[in-house]
Design goal:
With 117 residues, this protein is of the alpha+beta class. The protein has 3 helices and 4 strands, in the order βαββαβα. The chain has a single domain, classed as Ribosomal protein S6/Translation elongation factor EF1B (Alpha-Beta Plaits), CATH 3.30.70.60. 35% of the residues lie in helices and 41% in strands. It has a 4-stranded antiparallel beta sheet. The chain is globular, with a radius of gyration of 17 Å.
Length: 117
């Protein structure tokens, strides 16, 4: 199984319950495809750099998961069919990115002292 990160921008008119339901829908979809959730990070309402479908804000959600490669194409189809999704991006993570995300979630990086010459 590969590690992936999904970034989704949902339409800003979603209620809190609809936003949580959409998150759960995609988490359940990954579980159905023999995948596993690593981390879910809802960013909330943010301004967009440029208007998308005449909207200047969107609700961001970052979702890190492990899944087989075959599940990604099915996930893309589900995201494209969903009218609540303005944009999405799926990124395959290498081992360094996985380690970086893990450290970032769990308190950051340790500060090392400079060795004197």
């Amino acid at each position: 199984m590969n590690s992936y990160e999904l970034m989704v921008i949902f339409t800003p008119v979603l209620s809190e319950e609809d936003f949580k339901a959409s998150q759960k829908k995609y988490e359940d979809f990954i579980a159905e495809q023999s995948g596993a959730t690593v981390h879910s990070n809802p960013w909330g309402l943010k301004s967009l750099s440029y208007p998308i479908q005449k909207k200047t804000t969107g609700i961001y959600w970052i979702f890190e998961f492990n899944a087989p490669a075959e599940a990604i194409e099915k996930l893309k189809i589900q995201l494209l069919r969903d009218e609540q999704v303005l944009r999405h991006m799926i990124t395959r993570l290498d081992k360094n990115a996985v380690e970086y995300n893990y450290r970032k979630r769990n308190g950051g990086f340790a500060v090392t002292e400079k060795a004197e010459a």
